[in-house]
């Protein structure tokens, strides 16, 4: 029935309501199941009474001034409402009780019962295609249910063609109906194709005929043996009379009767399983027949169905018996061996035992002989077990493949064959071969390379693998690259070092000449990747002129040069391990690479079974008795003219061998050179055991950076700075010269008193006065060990740079500005609560919570005017335990050189500049570790609970890193790319122009070619984080910025920062001079007790260094 019948609205004066309202009732009121049928019945009633237009909205409400029309409209509304209400079940009134008009009533019912979403269509469509009837089911009810699903899809906008629906009906019938449906549908062609209505009528007639036949015929089925009729001649004569008069009930053909049908005879000739237990059936169909064979008498058969047996052979096999006859008078439950044989199983009997196997040759159960029968070791499933099995369905391999999340079909086959799960039933006729488009799109990979090369060079020099490797740390002699040559036959390694890539051709020729002159070899082939150093015209022409063949890998196939790629990785791994183990300077990586190649030539490799690469190369077994650990201390004889009191040898660092044990290479830290000597002596201890003793002679480096220095091309790493090594080496040199120049070997020692430190608090950048005794958290010794970049960051981020900032919450409460500080504290707590920073939990056993404190600062503009009071809750991360509370802590910030460069570019290119601040930046990242913190200082609820941190909080050692990772991930998702020179400067180039974002923790400097791009950047960032728009930048990291767009100039200064330093140190009234100290003054050491002001001195030095490098 159409949803909106196309009919013309009837004038009110012509409308006549037919009969009494109570006489218009549908056979079944509307419920949750019959919307489609009910809608088809109620719509004609509404049309007949002329009120359908009130339901579909075609009849609008007349204006109030038309009184007569309004009365007619109200009457029609009541009629329509009564018609609908009289045909609703009680449960449906809840959907229409609040509706004001009949249209609202109809719309509410449609919204509840008529789903039009794609998900609903998919569900009904899947049900239509997957519904299957079983033997014993009500076939007529099954067909009506299928027709109802088709009608529902039609109402939802999905038309199922009648031909397709007929095929769906055929496939939904039990297999026992296949002979019958084949006889009707197999011969249908052209215009004679049956419609679905005709097919349903034929099936309905056949069902009725079968019911009549079962009720009137005393059919017999054999259980153990087949018995024929006592009067075969009479049966044959009667059959001949019946031929041609009526169709066979089984296959539908007219040339025979049902009892003579080939298909039915085939079923009758087989023995049947038999059971006398009604509660053992999982599926059951009542019957009224008799059989012979049980006690040689006729016994009644009360039904047929399916029984599930549980085998007790050691594995939980489920044996499913179909078409089992229910014979209450049978003395035993019988298992048919002939039925097992029909299912490709087999039985082995002997010695009083029987073993039953399925078609997969899997033992399903066993039995023992009792009298003249075999008692099987099986039990029927209980009621609860059958209830659990009732959800099992028979699916195709493709359906199971999708339901198992697209795992491979081979895994599904093993799961089914080994019976690893229960409830998995597969259609036996479905082949386990199918095409899954989703798997093709998601799982297709490159063709695999063989684990080993299919061919190997037979002679050394026939094939050489080569590859170039880059290190971002400049070697001691200026090397930035090394090129490796690996012989394919012997796997012997040779390495050469390069300052630039264009030297590769020269190193290539040197290696060929070395082979020709030293080993009388003629290289034939070199295999390399498509790097620019190998595809140069000079190299190709030279190889062509010398008869050497160059082989290049295919694009995107580095595995074809896997020998060289893997060898370079191995050398890099050995180099990193040796450098980390002995803590030698990282600029010695070329020496470590050479030593690693030296060692690899003398060790086992899987490519050679019983030889080392060196033996395979030159035929000589290597001697390794002279080997020493790389970086070990070694005494080198001091040669030349020496005084009588000077030492005869000096301890240096061993870095490799020359020509076996005859000479070694060593590193002289005093001159920063690698030398060769044959007069050496190793101490008894190894490098790792004597590392503490040798550290005084080696330049000390940042242990964090050492993890990133030695790595191959393509792995991101931070910029390296070797200035520290150079400065420290020079300092060591000066110290050594002063010691040598001191008379009689006396060395002047410092008289400064040593200060005792509380090592638990040394790493606290916001230590309280009562914890450290001073404002800063760094001692002079700690400042001395910091790199220049760390000193700059410490000075620029020092929270108490303003002298009037309270140092703790107690001091803030005692100040007259407490109302302002209290507002700032509450705003911070609200921000932490909004971001879900922590959850209050009971203290866990064995965990010590980390404390916290409030950092209170006043924010000023570029002219020194107070902008706001800011409070920040900071965790005291110095109490965190490495490995438990944090792992990595490194977090970069934009370099000051980058800021100055971007400001200069903005002036030159007339870019737009804006500044933004991320509110609660660290709170946007989630920490991975389990950390507990005390409740905020001064705001403890007294319950003793702890804060289980969820978000990263300021002060945690990993907070900066987690925030930087989160920001980097979000910016890269928007198309931003970190620049090569600065990982905290992100750039993006589009057709509209250039965009740059510079990141200093939570301060963002935005640069764009035009205002449109700038607006786009702001909208993107505001969609991800909570941002404060600061407009034109006036001040960032203590640097004041003044821009004059008209004059195209920009000025940076740190006047306010300098004044704050002078005020803090009490030097505001000092007179400025051109020279800070008279060079003629002779300073004398103090004879009294030294005044230790190391903390103030270190802080002042850091601030002055920041001034020097910032502007």
From TrEMBL:
Q: Any keyword Nucleotide-binding? A: yes
> Heme as a keyword?
no
Regions of compositional bias (Basic and acidic residues) in chain numbering = 717-726, 745-763, 807-816
* InterPro entries reported in the protein's UniProt record: DNA/RNA_pol_sf (IPR043502), GAG-pre-integrase_dom (IPR025724), Integrase_cat-core (IPR001584), PolX-like_BBD (IPR054722), Retrotran_Ty1/copia-like (IPR039537), RNaseH-like_sf (IPR012337), RNaseH_sf (IPR036397), RVT_2 (IPR013103)
Composition bias type Basic residues, residue spans: 228-238
Q: Which SUPFAM superfamilies match?
A: DNA/RNA polymerases, Ribonuclease H-like
Report the protein name in the record.
Answer: Integrase catalytic domain-containing protein
What is the originating organism of this protein? Scleroderma citrinum Foug A
């Amino acid at each position: 029935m159409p949803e909106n019948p196309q009919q013309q609205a009837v004038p009110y004066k012509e409308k006549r309501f037919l009969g009494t309202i109570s006489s218009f009732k549908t056979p079944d009121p509307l419920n949750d199941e019959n919307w489609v049928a009910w809608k088809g019945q109620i719509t004609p009633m509404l049309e007949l009474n002329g009120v359908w237009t009130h339901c579909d909205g075609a009849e609008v409400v007349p204006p109030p001034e038309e009184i007569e029309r309004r009365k007619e409209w109200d009457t029609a509304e009541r009629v329509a409402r009564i018609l609908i209400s009289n045909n609703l079940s009680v449960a449906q009134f809840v959907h229409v009780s609040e509706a004001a008009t009949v249209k609202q009533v109809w719309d509410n019912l449609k919204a509840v019962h008529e789903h039009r979403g794609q998900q609903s269509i998919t569900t009904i469509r899947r049900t239509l295609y997957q519904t299957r009837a079983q033997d014993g089911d009500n076939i007529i009810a099954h067909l009506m249910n299928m027709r109802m699903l088709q009608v529902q899809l039609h109402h939802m906008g999905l038309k199922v063609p009648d031909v397709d629906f007929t095929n769906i009906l055929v496939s939904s019938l039990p297999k026992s109906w296949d002979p019958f449906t084949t006889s009707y549908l197999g011969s249908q062609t052209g215009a004679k194709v049956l419609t679905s209505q005709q097919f349903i009528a034929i099936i309905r007639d056949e069902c009725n005929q079968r019911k009549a036949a079962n009720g009137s015929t005393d059919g017999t089925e054999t259980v153990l043996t087949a018995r024929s009729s006592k009067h075969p001649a009479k049966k044959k004569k009667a059959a001949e009379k019946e031929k041609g008069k009526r169709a066979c009930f089984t296959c539908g053909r007219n040339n025979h009767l049902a009892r003579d049908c080939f298909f039915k005879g085939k079923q009758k000739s087989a023995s049947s399983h038999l059971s006398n237990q009604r509660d053992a059936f999982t599926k059951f169909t009542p019957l009224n027949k008799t059989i012979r064979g049980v006690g040689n008498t006729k016994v009644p058969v009360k039904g047929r169905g399916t029984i599930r047996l549980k085998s007790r052979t050691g594995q939980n096999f489920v044996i499913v018996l179909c078409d089992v006859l229910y014979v209450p008078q049978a003395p035993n439950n019988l298992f048919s061996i002939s039925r097992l044989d029909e299912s490709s199983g087999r039985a082995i009997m002997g010695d009083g035992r029987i073993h039953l196997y399925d078609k997969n040759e899997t033992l399903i159960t066993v039995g023992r002989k009792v009298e003249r029968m075999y008692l099987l070791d099986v039990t029927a499933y209980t009621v609860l077990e059958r209830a659990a099995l009732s959800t099992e369905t028979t699916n195709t391999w493709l359906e199971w493949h999708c339901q198992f999340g697209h795992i491979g079909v081979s895994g599904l086959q093993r799961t089914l064959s080994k019976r690893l799960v229960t409830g998995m039933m597969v259609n036996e006729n479905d082949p386990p071969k199918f095409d899954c488009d989703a798997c093709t799109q998601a799982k297709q990979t490159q063709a695999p390379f063989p684990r080993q090369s299919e061919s190997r060079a037979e002679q050394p020099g026939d094939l050489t693998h080569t590859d170039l490797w880059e290190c971002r740390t400049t070697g001691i002699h200026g090397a930035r690259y090394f090129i490796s040559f690996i012989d394919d036959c012997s796997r012997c390694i040779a390495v050469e070092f390069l300052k630039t890539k264009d030297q590769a051709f020269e190193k290539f020729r040197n290696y060929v000449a070395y082979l020709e002159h030293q080993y009388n070899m003629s290289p034939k082939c070199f295999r390399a990747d498509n790097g620019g150093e190998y595809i140069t015209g000079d190299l190709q022409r030279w190889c062509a002129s010398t008869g050497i063949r160059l082989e290049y890998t295919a694009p995107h196939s580095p595995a074809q040069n896997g020998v060289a790629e893997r060898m370079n990785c191995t050398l890099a791994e050995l180099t990193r391990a040796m450098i980390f183990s002995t803590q030698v300077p990282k600029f010695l990586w070329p020496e470590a690479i050479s030593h690693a190649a030296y060692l690899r030539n003398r060790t086992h490799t899987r490519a050679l079974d019983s030889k080392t690469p060196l033996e395979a190369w030159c035929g000589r077994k290597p001697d390794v008795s002279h080997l020493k650990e790389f970086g070990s201390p070694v005494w080198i004889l001091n040669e030349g003219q020496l005084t009588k009191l000077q030492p005869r040898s000096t301890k240096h660092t061993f870095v490799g061998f020359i020509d076996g044990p005859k000479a070694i290479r060593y590193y002289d830290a005093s001159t920063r050179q690698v030398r060769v000597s044959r007069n050496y002596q190793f101490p008894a201890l190894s490098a790792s055991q004597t590392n503490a003793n040798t550290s005084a002679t080696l330049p000390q480096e940042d242990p964090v950076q050492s993890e990133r220095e030695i790595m191959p091309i393509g792995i991101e790493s931070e910029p390296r700075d070797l200035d520290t090594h150079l400065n420290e080496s020079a300092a060591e040199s000066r110290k050594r010269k002063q010691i040598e120049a001191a008379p009689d070997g006396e060395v002047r020692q410092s008289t400064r008193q040593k200060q005792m430190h509380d090592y638990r608090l040394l790493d606290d950048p916001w230590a309280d006065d009562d914890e450290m005794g001073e404002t800063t958290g760094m001692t002079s010794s700690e400042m001395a060990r910091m790199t220049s970049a760390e000193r700059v960051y410490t000075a620029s981020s020092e929270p108490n740079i303003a002298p009037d900032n309270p140092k703790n919450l107690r001091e803030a409460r005692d100040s007259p500005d407490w109302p302002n500080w209290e507002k700032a504290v509450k705003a911070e707590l609200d921000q932490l609560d909004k971001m879900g920073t922590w959850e209050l939990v009971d203290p866990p056993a064995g965990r010590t919570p980390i404390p916290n404190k409030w950092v209170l600062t006043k924010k000023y503009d570029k002219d020194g005017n107070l902008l706001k009071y800011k409070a920040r809750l900071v965790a005291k991360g110095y109490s965190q335990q490495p490995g438990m509370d944090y792992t990595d802590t490194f977090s970069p910030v934009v370099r000051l050189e980058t800021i100055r460069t971007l400001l200069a570019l903005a002036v030159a290119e007339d870019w737009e500049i804006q500044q933004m601040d991320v509110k609660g930046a660290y709170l946007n990242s989630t920490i991975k570790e389990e950390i507990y913190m005390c409740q905020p200082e001064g705001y403890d609820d007294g319950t003793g609970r702890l804060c289980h941190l969820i978000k990263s909080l300021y002060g945690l050692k990993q907070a900066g890193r987690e925030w930087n990772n989160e920001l980097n991930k979000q910016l890269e998702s928007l198309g931003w790319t970190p620049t090569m020179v600065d990982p905290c400067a992100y750039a993006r180039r589009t057709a509209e122009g250039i965009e740059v974002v510079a990141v200093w923790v939570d301060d963002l400097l935005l640069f764009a070619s035009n205002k449109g791009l700038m607006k786009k950047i702001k909208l993107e960032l505001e969609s991800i984080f909570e941002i404060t728009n600061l407009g034109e930048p006036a001040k960032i990291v203590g640097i004041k910025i003044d821009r004059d767009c008209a004059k195209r100039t920009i000025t940076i200064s740190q006047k306010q920062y300098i004044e704050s330093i002078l005020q803090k140190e009490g030097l505001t009234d000092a007179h400025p001079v051109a020279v800070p100290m008279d060079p003629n003054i002779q300073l004398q050491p103090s004879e009294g007790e030294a005044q230790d002001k190391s903390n103030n001195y270190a802080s002042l030095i850091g601030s002055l260094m920041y001034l020097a490098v910032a502007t």
